[in-house]
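Fold Annotation — chain and its backbone
Next Lines — sequence and tokenised fold

***
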Amino acid sequence: MEPAKASHDSEVPTTNPPPTSTGSSADVVISAPTDTACDKEETPTVGLLPGETVVKEGKASILFPSANEVFYNPVQEFNRDLTCAVITEFARDLLAQRGVKVVVPGEKERVVVSLAEETNEADAQMEEKNGAEEPAVTATVGEKCELGLRVLEGLAASGLRSVRFALEVPGLQSVTANDFSTKAAALIARNAQYNGVGHLLQASCRDASMLMYEMRGKKERYDVIDLDPYGSPASFLDAAVQAVSEGGLLCITCTDMAVMAGNSGETCYSKYGSISIKAKYCHEMALRTILHSLDQRAGVYQRYIQPLLSVSVDFYIRVFVRVFTGQATVKNSASKQALVYNCVGCGAFHLQRMGRRTSNGKHMKYSAATGPPVGPECDHCGQRHQLGGPVWAEPIHDLAFVQKVLSAVSGNPSRFGTSKRIEGMLSMVTEELEDVPLYYTVDSLSSTIHCSTPPLLQLRSALLHAGHRVSLSHARKNAIKTDAPPAAIWDIMRCWEKANPVKREKLSQTSPAFKILSTEPSQEACFTVREDANPQSRKRHLTRFQENPQAFWGPKARAKASGGITTSLQDKRKKCQNKRKNQITDSSQLKNFPCKKFRQGTCTNGEKCCYSHDQEQTNQEKME
């Protein structure tokens, strides 16, 4: 029996979740939580169907068919852990305004210190009086909170992420797990019953965009929308920025890094409205590209975004942004975007803002920006420039919010399986220069002038001695984010080359290295290591860049409607790799490869064909 057919026996509720209560916390009388506050339904025991296995992650246990009918990627556990941590802190901040206190298992009592000015005694007495009249409501994990968040996972697949939300994130009113596949939706419903979260989680079998378009009303919008597609989320962004509530949270994943990292700039423009270029900083540029696309689409509806956290992880990027409405603030959008001029020779880059904003008393004046910031040729190596963007040029993180998430994760390390990696990455994020877009890499600077690579701490110290700010980047190893202009950076590299000379007679006169080294440095660099050159995350040896946990751990094969994935997928990958390095010299070896013309029915060589006409092998090739 195929597990997919059996999964259709489960009923899949597709009704829309109830709208959020329109009244404030002062208008609704809520008693302290009791045993009846959480109306958990007694769900029947769900047994395993033939071919199903149980996948455990976090507090969730997910039924998963052996066939590749519903997509699941175990490598994304870090993504899901980080999302649970971010939504928990978002719920803590938002529900505190509604008089609800969230409680996380294993978390100690947190002391919140106000950064505002000290309140006087009258204000303190008034707060005590209000607190006595309106006792705080406590929201715990697994319980339905009437003033809680309404969450939508638009592309839920097996429902693992939504089940984890229901089991691990407190303060939720409802979780809608949607997938266009009927088999996936049926599996979601079974997983909700299997984990006992049927009172919180609702399965939906709809087109994600149409579902979000139908929930655009102010009273029907979701507080959190999570989109984690297989590939590009571009087709869902327009609906997402409309369906999220005022100040709501969008969680977006992009796995089409080949497009966003410069391999196909024209495709990137058609999807995100931005040209991607091949550069060492391509991972951060990908983050700024998706933020630009979100802000541009939100601006159509007089809305704007506020990034909370943007991370580049392995083969994908993940952004968490809040969406607000404000016609006046939307006018600032043009001045938040920038074009990128990238030198193809030495890698120096300059940003050109798209708009200009100047303060004129109580009013703000908007005008066109002036430029370009570079000449026809690079001032350092004489090469041409590439033009990329526009990209988001403002900070990509809210450091205050990131610090809250970091404190919560480090204070409760047993909550997530990837807590160490989350702590290491968020620690690096808090150390980044938030007002400095993009970065250089130490190895690319040295390879440009063909010299030995300077130690990271020495290069950072030289920049600090010169009076510039510098930090690392979570997006790439050996990255240098600095406010130093390219001229100052190349001066430091010239000084390093003098101490570690290269054979200049071997340099071509037209090469960037010859042009850069032909100029004398305008100032001497000091490479004495400073104490503040080594950041705390590096001193503490935090897990900042985790090694590959297993072979072939990257993106898995796309789920198929018919199910089934060949066991020889890895064999095919190995066979297709290094074709140029291991060229076939013996024609008899060609019989191991299927004939493409025979597969198309156009081969006329018959038995004389040097390729295989094995029907079974040809069918297997089609399935792969």
Notes: Residues 1-44, 111-135 have pLDDT under 50 and may be disordered. The longest helix spans residues 77-96.
